[in-house]
């Protein structure tokens, strides 16, 4: 390990190491947005505009960030977001991230487009995790995915609503993204400089989409997988499908991808347990508003009816606290933990969570608050935050 983890003090430190250690196509997959990447950048930069009120000579003793998300106890209001190809950031990445999250006391969400399968993660973990569902044209496959998540003991289903069609991600196109990477000269040259990653991949059998290969009709090899995925995201997805999925699942349901107050009303009316204000990390509609900009309007619209969480743009514990101050009941982080995973494996995910916790705890203290129930817009400087 080139750097003692105790000297890794922020998420940016993890990003720098991950960029050095992860093959370019997979690093770029995690750390990029659609088209001009304007929304991807805004997700992060809009947080920086929000300023905090420092308070002094108040009792800061006995602080706690503990709360619940959809009725599930969490050490802090953070869950690991579903991220595709996590097992390509580091060998067996989904398993390692799930183990780190469980040990720390926050939820892990497994993506439909994971490398390690639902069953792989369930076998390697002791605590329930969440499963994220994309709706495909093959509804029999989707029904079976839901049943597999039930059988694995998943404690919540996260239904993503904002990927009926794929946003254009220029870096992925230029890099020829695939899992595993195709043996082109360009890829081979890049992999030659990633020996740690290559050794890890040689030590695992999990190198493609574990939830799909061998489960979807006719998908038995990489050639079949490529054509299947190109056709399967369903542009016909509707609120009627949400009702069907809710009934088929029968457990806690979380709706991800809400950016508009009208959609938030529809989401709340489904009876779901939570909705996630998310623009897919800026990877779908470039030019959309950042999530922190739209959060207050959605909280105002439906916050009394359904838990509102925020995803996209969080790079620090301060960002977490700012989202809570603006009415979010929880947050999800994707890139922050992926940087840790790509840099140092399971220990890097743990370090990312430690960093977020420490930053949120210290910030809450210096704002004169001891628990999340006391955190609201009074910790923010008027005129610096969206309303």
From TrEMBL:
CDD domains: alpha_hydroxyacid_oxid_FMN. The active site is at residue 280. Keywords: Flavoprotein, FMN, Oxidoreductase. Residues 3-385 form the FMN hydroxy acid dehydrogenase domain. Gene3D superfamilies: Aldolase class I (3.20.20.70). FMN binds at residues 82-84, 111, 160, 256, 278, 311-315, 334-335. Glyoxylate binds at residues 29, 132, 134, 169, 280, 283. One of its GO terms (cellular component) is plasma membrane. InterPro entries: Aldolase_TIM, Alpha-hydoxy_acid_DH_FMN, FMN-dep_DH, FMN_HAD, FMN_hydac_DH_AS. Its cofactor is FMN. GO terms for biological process: aerobic respiration. The keyword Protease does not apply. SUPFAM superfamilies: FMN-linked oxidoreductases. One of its GO terms (molecular function) is L-lactate dehydrogenase (NAD+) activity. The keyword Cell membrane does not apply. NCBIfam families: PRK11197.1. Belongs to the FMN-dependent alpha-hydroxy acid dehydrogenase family. This is Alpha-hydroxy-acid oxidizing enzyme.
